[in-house]
């Protein structure tokens, strides 16, 4: 048997040579995946299309016998739909960091490429999760005990992430020798930008020691992007041609400038804002796999999609996940069920919270800041959500000064719906 390139640690494919380099880059992707997989795992394989996401195309790699020990029979090859090197690199580095420093289950990474070597786009060979189902679809199939367990397990993930403390806001990077550092924050951008051959990730040049400079840099980066690509703005917001391109550009720029002006006053800068921890940008039912079989029903078996993970203020992690707010894809849970699972989640976090920071994060005083971060971290084309936040801020600005600190303060259901609607816009 040939020696596989994969020997237990993720393989960086960027500079490796493969026989597939003789294949045309516009040829079918399956034979190119097969050549790379054969070199990685020293095994013949079959390649089948598996899934099509907003930012990635996924293929199932079925390895034939014999194959080296500890290599599973199926592996996923996930190919980005646009150049996203910072995203791929930070995703791999973050998963390694989380697996080394917590007990959060994350997929095993076999190999990755940031420069499109052989497959023309950035890609990953990553573990195929076969022992569970996505929380979003599986939660309603559990009995009451299983649902309660899944909710408590989610609380455990939130708590463990809150314990991964850092000194700056940014995305994790890993030196070749294995030590970690924080680089500039990398966050997903819209699919509209993908279709126009623009970036799907914006990576700011440096990490930030405080939340306000970070949010200002994010929105200023958005404003710069909008001004550079007026055709995208006109296409997105002027489908019926009721305004000139200049008017549309001015409207979008005005919303961004107003938000930039509001950030220093609206965002909390107190002591808790200086407690920084790692956070999964999309820690919801679609990114969590759970077991559905007794006796482990409700146990989290894997958390995926770490490409948007960044270090943020600890009050950012206090939010209701979608699986206890909705039933299936669209229907809302009955209010009584929603409250019951929210109480289970809150009580479990309070039980785990040894240093009291998450308890403080429940306070209503951080609600406006949480909502602001949700809005600012959305793509440029979510102007409606930005305008909604600005309208709400104008009405709440005076009232927020008198809010009682003991209020629960988790992100409002309205803002959760706004956030989820904004993310759907980016996938169209």
From TrEMBL:
SUPFAM superfamilies: Protein kinase-like (PK-like). Transmembrane segments: none annotated. It comes from Calocera viscosa (strain TUFC12733). InterPro entries: AGP_Transferase, Aminoglycoside_PTrfase, Kinase-like_dom_sf. This is Aminoglycoside phosphotransferase domain-containing protein. PANTHER family: AMINOGLYCOSIDE PHOSPHOTRANSFERASE DOMAIN-CONTAINING PROTEIN, AMINOGLYCOSIDE PHOSPHOTRANSFERASE-RELATED-RELATED. Residues 49-314 form the Aminoglycoside phosphotransferase domain.
């Amino acid at each position: 048997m040939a020696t596989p390139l994969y020997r237990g640690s993720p393989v960086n494919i960027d500079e490796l040579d493969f026989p597939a380099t003789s294949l045309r880059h516009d040829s079918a992707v399956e034979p190119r995946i097969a050549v790379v997989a054969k070199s990685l795992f020293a095994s013949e394989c079959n390649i089948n299309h598996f899934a099509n996401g907003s930012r990635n195309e996924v293929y199932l790699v079925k390895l034939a016998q014999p194959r080296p020990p500890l290599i599973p029979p199926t592996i996923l090859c996930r190919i980005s739909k646009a150049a996203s090197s910072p995203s791929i690199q930070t995703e791999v580095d973050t998963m390694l960091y989380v697996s080394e420093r917590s007990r959060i289950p994350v997929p095993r990474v076999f190999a990755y490429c940031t420069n499109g070597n052989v497959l023309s786009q950035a890609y990953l060979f990553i573990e195929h999760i076969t022992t569970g189902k996505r929380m979003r679809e599986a939660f309603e199939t559990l009995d009451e005990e299983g649902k309660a367990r899944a909710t408590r397990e989610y609380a455990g993930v939130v708590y463990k992430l809150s314990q991964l403390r850092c000194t700056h806001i940014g995305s994790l990077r890993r030196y070749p020798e294995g030590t970690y550092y924080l680089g500039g924050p990398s966050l997903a951008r819209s699919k509209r930008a993908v279709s126009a051959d623009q970036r799907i990730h914006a990576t700011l040049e440096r990490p930030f020691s405080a939340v306000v400079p970070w949010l200002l840099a994010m929105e200023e980066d958005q404003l710069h992007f909008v001004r550079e690509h007026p055709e995208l703005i006109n296409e997105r917001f002027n489908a019926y041609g009721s305004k000139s391109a200049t008017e549309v550009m001015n409207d979008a720029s005005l919303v961004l400038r107003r938000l930039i002006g509001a950030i220093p006053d609206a965002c909390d800068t107190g002591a808790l804002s200086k407690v920084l921890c790692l956070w999964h940008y999309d820690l919801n039912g679609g990114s969590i796999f759970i077991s559905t079989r007794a006796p482990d029903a409700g146990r989290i078996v894997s958390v995926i999609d770490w490409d948007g993970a960044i270090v943020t203020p600890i009050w950012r992690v206090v939010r209701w996940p979608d699986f206890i707010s909705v039933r299936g894809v669209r229907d809302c849970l009955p209010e009584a069920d929603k409250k019951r699972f929210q109480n289970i989640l809150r009580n479990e976090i309070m039980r785990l919270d040894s240093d009291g920071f998450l308890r403080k994060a429940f306070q209503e005083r951080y609600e406006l800041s949480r909502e602001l971060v949700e809005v600012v971290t959305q793509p440029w084309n979510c102007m409606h959500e930005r305008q909604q936040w600005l309208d709400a801020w104008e009405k709440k600005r005076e009232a927020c000064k008198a809010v009682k600190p003991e209020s629960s303060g988790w992100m409002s259901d309205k803002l959760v719906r706004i956030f989820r609607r904004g993310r759907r816009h980016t996938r169209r």
